[in-house]
Amino acid sequence: MNVKIIAIALATAVAMPAVAHHSFAVFDMSKTVVLEGTVKEFQWTAPHCWVQLMVPGADGKEVEWSIEWRSPNQLTRTGVRRDSFKPGDKVQITVNPMRSGSPSGSLSKAVFPDGRTLDFNGGPRRPLQ
Amino acid sequence: MSRNIGLVVVFILFAGVASAAGRSNTPPKGLDWSGVWLNNAGVTLTATGGVQLRAPEVPPLKPEFEKRRQEVMRAMQAGKPIEDSGASCKWPGVPTIIRMTMPQEFIVLPDRVVILYENMSQVRRIFMDGRKPPADLDYTYNGFSTGHWEGDTLVAETVGLRADTFLTMGVRHSEQLKVVERYREISPGLIEVDITMTDPAVLTAPWNTKGRFRRQEADFPMLEYDCNDNNRNGVGADGTTFTLGPDGKPL
């Protein structure tokens, strides 16, 4: 892949995300890719939110990654808001990559320079089970 | 002789009253299903941020439908999902919507129970006033539901379900599908639904399954959900799903 990939790891425990909308089988949930880049756009939209992340490649050219997340409905209830990612934010995002090798993945974890962390389920709040 | 007939009549009347005990068109006194209920659909969010899914259920499908279900499962495992109606933002319809992990509200009225689903902002009306489905019923996503109360249990029967929606993963039902739902608050803040699906064209026997709904805290919001707002997924001509990149072309 012609991008700056910090680490690729094989996950030992595979958890298939449950989504109301579509199957996430296009993503390889057994693999993670760690990306470091700059937020171009945060699409706070149904059925899924997307983080468009510009990631510098080995040749210096930037590659735009499309990182799929849960719905704004699910995320709102965990404390995520429409400005949780802002254009220009530097962020490290771990994704489960698309099997095809396209620059796309399912958001697994996002870590901001100030230590703020989000994961696939969103922020720290959880619905009652 | 006439005295015997009289006894039989009295017995039949008594039996009729006994069998109808607890059956009512109006909600039981004190029942309060207000608030927002989250369908957990057997899904648990784990402490580490992952999602734990229960094992997929296997309905009693006729062999040709079981074969299809396994094909769809294999395609999913191979990373090329097919028959994924959600990707095209079609309404899920009954019975799928009963079992999806999203919140809902029960609006319990004297003549009907209205269920408001966050999922695609769907609405179902369960008529409790004794009416029957119309004879020339159209087939729709959520069908036509009639119901009654049996003690503290809401019983709903749904027919008129369109055959291009799904019974289970990868398998559509027929227009003969009948769905009976029985909702009861089994402990404070926890409603269980017992679902029985009958479809002689697809199933070898009635399929019975259960779901659970947990009442959420008062500030838990029900939100809009327009699936077509920014759907970057779709279903291609070969039935597989695709994802659109930032340029609007498949990734």
SSE blueprint and pairings:
The complex is a heterodimer of chains A (129) and B (251).
Chain A: E1 5-10, E2 31-43, E3 50-56, E4 62-68, H1 72-76, E5 90-97, E6 104-111, E7 117-119
Parallel strand pairs in A: 4-6
Antiparallel strand pairs in A: 1-2, 2-3, 2-5, 3-4, 5-6, 6-7
Chain B: H1 2-19, E1 23-24, E2 37-39, E3 44-45, E4 51-52, H2 63-77, E5 103-108, E6 112-117, E7 123-127, E8 144-150, E9 153-159, E10 166-168, E11 171-172, E12 178-187, E13 190-198, E14 207-215, E15 233-235, E16 241-243
Parallel strand pairs in B: 7-8
Antiparallel strand pairs in B: 1-8, 2-5, 2-14, 3-4, 5-6, 6-7, 8-9, 9-12, 10-11, 12-13, 13-14, 15-16
Mind explaining what this structure looks like?
The complex is a heterodimer of chains A (129) and B (251). By secondary structure, chain A is mainly beta. Chain A has one domain: Nucleic acid-binding proteins (OB fold (Dihydrolipoamide Acetyltransferase, E2P)). Chain A has 1 helix and 7 strands; from the N terminus they run ββββαβββ. Chain A has one helix spanning 72-76; strands at residues 5-10, 31-43, 50-56, 62-68, 90-97, 104-111, 117-119. Chain A has a 5-stranded mixed barrel with strand order 2-3-4-6-5. In chain A, a hairpin with a 6-residue loop joins strand 5 (90-97) and strand 6 (104-111). Chain B is built from 2 helices and 16 strands. Chain B has one domain (37-229). Chain B is α+β, with helices and mostly antiparallel strands and 251 residues long. In chain B, strand 15 (233-235) and strand 16 form a beta hairpin. The chains are: A mainly beta (129), B alpha+beta (251). The interface between A and B is large, with 42 and 49 residues.
Q: Into how many domains do the coordinates of chain A divide? A: 1
In percent, how helical is the residue content of chain A? under 10%
Note the run of SSEs of chain B as H and E.
HEEEEHEEEEEEEEEEEE
Strand percentage of chain B lies at 25-35%
What oligomeric state do these chains adopt? heterodimer
Low-confidence stretches of chain A: 1-20
Using only C-alpha atoms, the radius of gyration of chain B works out to 21 Å
Would you tell me the structural class of the helices and strands of chain A?
mainly beta
Taken in chain order, the helices and strands of chain A follow as: EEEEHEEE
CATH topology of chain A: OB fold (Dihydrolipoamide Acetyltransferase, E2P)
The pLDDT mean of chain A sits at 86
Q: Helix tally of chain B? A: 2
CATH homologous superfamily placement of chain A:
Nucleic acid-binding proteins
Cα end-to-end separation of chain B:
85 Å
Number of helices of chain A: 1
Strands of chain B, count: 16
Strand ordering within the main sheet of chain B: 2-5-6-7-8-9-12-13-14
> What is the terminal separation of chain A in angstroms?
40 Å
